[in-house]
Each structure stands twice: as structure tokens, then as C-alpha cells.
């Protein structure tokens, strides 16, 4: 039914016109999933009205005084009302009929269409007054609009509706331009009649709106956050201060990137690199997404690549597509372009830091290494840039790029198949004996104790030609870097067979694979190892939190008896079977102890045997 019109300024009654295709998205209880959004929408619309007036003034179409443009939120607990007021553009009765009664129209869209040739500053117009306004009915049983247009001679008007399609439009007594939206809060929404609750919502959604927003006598927003300013006008302290404003409990960031692009999309923002260290923190302190300084969400997984989710900060773009309630991102080509742009900017920033301050970059690498490695794992374009600045760190605390490290170990760690073997430790304390053995051979050992290093080394083996990683305790050194050389054994083949049978009998464990091998006499008498492949698969299964085929396999260890060690010769020569058994158990427990695998009753028994022997 069409709106009834009255030319004499008397009361008008009618029905709101809703286009059929839009009826479901805007039904009052289903437009938004989160009811607190009503305040974001109404305050955003009020700011929109002030921004429109500012633009009209700049076009020369408003010659009056702008005054102090602002938005005021007022709570009246006794009357059970919340009022959102502005001194912006206002509306005539005809505009109410067009923009409020006929929901399919949008005041912001119409305004932009009319003035599109006069300005490209679309960032000044926040939202769509029609749909956003109707979020008020999620919490209100009745809504009033009292408004007066900026136009000369305009009459003020009052519009009242109870959330149905029926409304009343009458003259009002408002003397100043602007609009008051008065919400008569419904009984089931009286939780919002709480000053602290309203302040929390305003802090969340209105924190950086471009027009001052007042509540309870205080301005609640910063109208010019630093992402709206030129980097040339900002100091390091400005960036650090803004970070503290966003994350009051956070550590000082390592560095940051100022995003500022206007083609082929509009995007501004600040991304901070936190001190990530050795943990994956995707959800603790998120990147905040804004649209023209209106907070939208901190779920930015479609806008920001996965590996950048560990960053903190703000992204603001009017070009990110949202659904009708502005609550969810809708992935499209522009989102992919923004995603790619952010990835490039981050890679370029890291590359610049590496090239201009190598020492400073190395000092930060323990904090940002996890982030860089995750980026290499998840984004091929990032890898193409990061392969020149990702660093490897050895147990001596020395850093090297991939190319530098290959050159460093080329002469000594090439196996018989011309494959470069990179030795590493995932726990320098637990694997200290193995590291010491490798160092005695002149080998270099990398420290790869990051939570995703098992995945990282897999990726590098695929990306780098003829490179293989071996954990320093995955096998004997002669097998870790097999140069095709065989050590001579001081024992005969029969003696080696007797030793193997002895260890099999004493240990009596089917998960242990015993072998007797000729090794240098300065190696341990017995070494316990887990094959690199099995260990790596189990590490990755543990990190993913999912039970995989490899993660569910029973644990199996290799027990390597050093045929050339004097203790093994003594053990083999022992004629007392009880003493021989005790010695066998003792050297095996020493191997367990070197791997931090000797615990409980077995550790107690080992200590007692050692004391008795002394």
C-alpha cells in the first residue's frame, strides 16, 4: 500500500513500502545476529549525516554555520529510552517517506549518486540509512524520529513506528537542524538500559568514528586515528602509542607496516609485528577490520592470509564486500587483491629490514621466525620473496641465509650421493651428547626447535635441490652423513653376533631393533635413535592435534652397539652371566639417559647399580 500524503502539515498515516526481494533480510529480528549492533548502525548513520553536511558545505550547497558537528548518545533509565542525536543534514517529511518508509532506497546511495562527479571521497559516507536504521527494532518496541533538515525553510517532522509496517508522520517542534532517534526499549532488551553496557558497545564500534561521539558527558572516540594520517607526519612513538591504545596489556611491538593504497582498491591501516616467539597465537589479539572508521569485525581470515593472522593492528577499507548486516565478509576478486597486496607489503617490509639492518633483523628473528616460516609453508608467493631473508640458526647462535648456509657446510656435509645433509637438533639440552659428537667431527648443527619446524624442514627439502635434514640423534653419524666409508671393527663377525643376541635377550623388547656397528671409540658404547622419517611424522601429527597413520604407529627405536668401544669389549669378555647382564643393562640405560628417556623405577635402579659399582 502506498504512503498517504497530507499537504496541510497534519498527521499522516500509512504503511511502509518494502520491496519484496528485500523483505526477509530486514525483518527486525533477523537482520542482525548480534543485537548490540543496533548502536553501531544508529551512531554510524548519525555520523553519516554530519559527514554529508560537511561535504555539502564544501560543495557550496550549504552556506550556514557547521558549528561543532557531533553525535550524542543519551540513556534515560527511568523512561527506558536510548536516544542517538546528531546536528547533521537532517530530513524533511518527504525524505522520511523516501528513505525510511521505502526501505529499498538508501539515503547514502542516493547522496553519492547525486554528487559522484563532485567528489571521490566516498570514505566520508559510512552506511545505508534505510537498512541500518531498522536494526533499532531489534531492541525497541517503538522508535521515534524527530528531525529537521538543513534546507532553508524546512519544517521539522516526527515519525513514530512500533516495528510493524504501520507508521505515523506528524509535524514536530524541533528548531535546530539534525535528527534524534529515540528508542523505547522493549522488555526483552532492557539489558541495554545499562550505562556500562552502552559504553562497552561504543568503545567497540565507535572508537575511531570521524565525528565526535559523546556519551555520559564524555567523548568516546578518537576521530583521527593514525591510519588516516600520512606516515611522513608520524613518529615511532605515535605508532607505539597507538599500539598501546589497541592492546593495553601487550608487549611493545617489534616493528610495523603502514598500509596506504587508493588503486585498484582503497585500503589503509597499520599492521604490527608482535613478539611471537615459539607459539601459535591466532586468536588472542586479532587484527581489527574497519570500514570508513566503523568497526566491522576481527574475523579477517578472508582479507588477511592465514600466516598473517599472527599480526596485530587495523585494516580499513570501504571496498571489502560485506553482507547486508555488515557482519560477514563476502569473498570476491577485490578481497583476493587486498589479500595479495598485504602479503607483498609484509614481504617487502621484511626484505627491507634484512637488507638495511642485518644485525637488527637477526636480533628480531627469534621473535618473527615462526611467522616467516609459517608464511613460507602456506604461501608460495611469500616463499619467493622470503627465501632470500629467512634465516637458519645453529647451536652456536650464528645466523645464515639458506644460500650462505649451503656454502658453509658444502665441503664437510656432502654425502656419497652428493646430497647436502643439514644436521639439526630440536632440543639442545636433551640431545647435547649427540650434538657434541657431531661437533667433534667438524659438523655444524642447526637449532630447529620451533613448533612448526618439522613442517618447515619438509618444505625446504621439497624446495631446495639435493638437501636433506637429519636430526642429530636420528642415527649414528656415519649413517646420518653417509660418505661411503666403513670403519673397521675390532670384533669378529661371531663376536658381533653374540653381542646382538645378548642385547636382544637382556632387553627383551620387540620395539627395539638392535644392531652392532663399528664406530669411533669416542662415541657412546650404545646409542638409541629413532629414524628421521618416523620422528618427523610423529612430530607433525602431534602439532596438528589429529591422529594420523604415522602418529598412531607404535614407537620403534634403533639400538646401536658400538663394537669398537672398550666397554663393549669388556662386556663381551665377562664370564659371569649375572655381571654381563648387569653391564648390558647399564650401558643401555646410559643410552636412555642421554636421550632423557630414563625415568621412574628404571632411573632409580640405574642409580643404585652405579653406586654399587663405585
UniProtKB/TrEMBL annotation:
Which residue intervals define the domain Histidine kinase/HSP90-like ATPase in the entry?
34-175
Q: Which InterPro entries match?
A: HATPase_C_sf (IPR036890), HATPase_dom (IPR003594), Heat_shock_protein_90_CS (IPR019805), HSP90_C (IPR037196), Hsp90_fam (IPR001404), Hsp90_N (IPR020575), Ribosomal_Su5_D2-typ_SF (IPR020568)
UniProt entry keywords in alphabetical sequence: ATP-binding, Chaperone, Nucleotide-binding
Residues in the signal sequence:
none
Q: Does the keyword Chaperone apply?
A: yes
Protein family membership: Belongs to the heat shock protein 90 family.
Q: Which NCBIfam families match?
A: PRK05218.1
Q: What is this protein called?
A: Molecular chaperone HtpG
**Species per Swiss-Prot/TrEMBL record:** Spirosoma utsteinense
Amino acid at each position: 500500500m502506498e504512503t498517504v500524503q497530507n499537504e496541510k502539515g497534519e498527521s499522516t498515516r500509512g504503511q511502509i513500502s518494502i520491496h519484496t526481494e528485500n523483505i526477509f533480510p530486514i525483518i527486525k529480528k533477523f537482520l542482525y545476529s548480534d543485537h548490540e549492533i543496533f548502536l553501531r548502525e544508529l551512531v554510524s548513520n548519525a555520523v553519516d549525516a554530519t559527514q554529508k553536511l560537511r561535504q555539502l558545505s564544501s560543495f557550496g550547497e550549504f552556506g550556514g554555520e557547521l558549528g561543532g558537528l557531533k553525535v550524542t548518545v543519551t540513556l534515560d533509565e527511568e523512561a527506558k529510552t536510548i536516544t542517538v542525536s546528531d546536528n547533521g543534514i537532517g530530513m524533511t517529511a518527504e525524505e522520511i517517506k523516501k528513505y525510511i518508509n521505502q526501505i529499498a532506497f538508501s539515503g547514502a546511495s542516493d547522496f553519492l549518486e547525486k554528487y559522484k562527479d563532485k567528489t571521490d571521497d566516498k570514505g566520508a559516507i559510512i552506511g545505508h540509512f534505510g537498512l541500518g536504521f531498522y536494526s533499532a527494532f531489534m531492541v525497541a518496541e517503538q522508535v521515534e524520529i524527530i528531525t529537521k533538515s538543513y534546507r532553508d525553510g524546512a519544517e521539522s517532522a516526527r515519525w513514530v513506528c512500533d516495528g510493524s509496517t504501520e507508521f505515523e508522520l506528524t509535524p514536530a517542534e524541533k528548531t535546530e537542524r539534525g535528527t534524534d532517534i529515540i528508542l523505547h526499549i522493549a522488555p526483552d532488551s532492557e539489558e541495554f538500559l545499562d550505562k556500562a553496557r552502552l559504553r562497552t558497545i561504543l568503545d567497540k564500534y565507535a572508537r575511531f568514528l570521524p565525528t565526535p561521539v559523546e556519551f555520559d558527558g564524555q567523548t568516546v572516540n578518537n576521530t583521527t586515528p593514525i591510519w588516516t594520517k600520512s606516515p611522513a607526519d608520524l613518529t615511532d612513538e605515535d605508532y607505539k602509542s597507538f599500539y598501546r591504545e589497541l592492546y593495553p596489556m601487550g608487549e611493545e611491538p617489534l616493528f610495523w607496516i603502514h598500509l596506504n593504497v587508493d588503486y585498484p582498491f582503497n585500503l589503509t591501516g597499520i599492521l604490527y609485528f608482535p613478539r611471537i616467539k615459539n607459539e601459535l597465537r591466532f586468536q588472542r589479539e586479532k587484527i581489527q577490520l574497519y570500514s570508513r572508521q566503523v568497526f566491522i569485525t576481527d574475523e579477517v581470515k578472508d582479507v588477511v592470509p592465514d600466516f598473517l593472522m599472527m599480526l596485530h593492528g587495523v585494516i580499513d577499507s570501504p571496498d571489502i564486500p560485506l553482507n547486508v548486516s555488515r557482519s560477514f565478509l563476502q569473498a570476491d576478486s577485490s578481497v583476493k587483491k587486498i589479500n595479495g597486496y598485504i602479503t607483498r607489503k609484509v614481504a617487502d617490509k621484511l626484505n627491507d629490514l634484512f637488507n638495511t639492518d642485518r644485525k637488527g633483523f637477526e636480533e628480531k628473528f627469534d621473535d618473527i621466525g615462526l611467522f616467516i616460516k609459517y608464511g613460507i609453508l602456506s604461501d608460495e608467493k611469500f616463499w619467493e620473496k622470503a627465501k632470500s631473508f629467512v634465516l637458519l640458526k645453529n647451536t652456536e647462535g650464528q645466523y645464515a641465509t639458506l644460500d650462505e648456509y649451503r656454502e658453509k657446510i658444502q665441503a664437510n656435509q656432502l654425502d656419497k650421493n652428493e646430497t647436502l645433509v643439514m644436521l639439526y637438533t630440536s632440543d639442545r639440552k636433551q640431545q647435547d651428547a649427540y650434538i657434541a659428537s657431531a661437533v667433534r667431527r667438524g659438523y655444524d648443527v642447526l637449532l630447529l626447535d620451533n613448533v612448526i619446524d618439522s613442517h618447515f624442514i619438509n618444505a625446504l627439502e621439497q624446495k631446495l635441490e639435493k638437501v636433506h635434514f637429519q636430526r642429530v640423534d636420528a642415527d649414528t653419524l656415519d649413517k646420518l652423513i653417509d660418505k661411503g666409508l666403513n670403519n673397521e671393527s675390532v670384533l669378529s663377525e661371531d663376536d658381533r653376533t653374540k653381542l646382538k643376541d645378548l642385547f636382544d635377550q637382556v632387553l627383551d623388547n620387540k620395539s627395539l631393533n638392535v644392531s652392532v656397528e663399528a664406530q669411533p671409540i669416542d662415541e657412546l658404547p650404545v646409542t638409541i635413535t629413532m629414524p628421521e622419517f618416523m620422528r618427523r611424522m610423529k612430530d607433525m601429527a602431534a602439532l596438528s592435534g589429529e591422529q594420523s597413520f604415522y602418529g598412531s604407529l607404535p614407537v620403534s627405536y634403533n639400538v646401536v652397539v658400538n663394537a669398537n668401544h672398550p666397554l663393549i669389549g669388556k662386556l663381551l669378555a665377562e664370564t659371569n652371566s649375572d655381571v654381563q647382564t648387569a653391564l648390558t643393562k647399564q650401558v643401555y640405560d646410559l643410552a636412555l639417559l642421554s636421550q632423557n628417556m630414563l625415568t621412574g623405577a628404571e632411573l632409580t635402579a640405574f642409580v643404585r647399580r652405579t653406586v654399587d659399582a663405585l
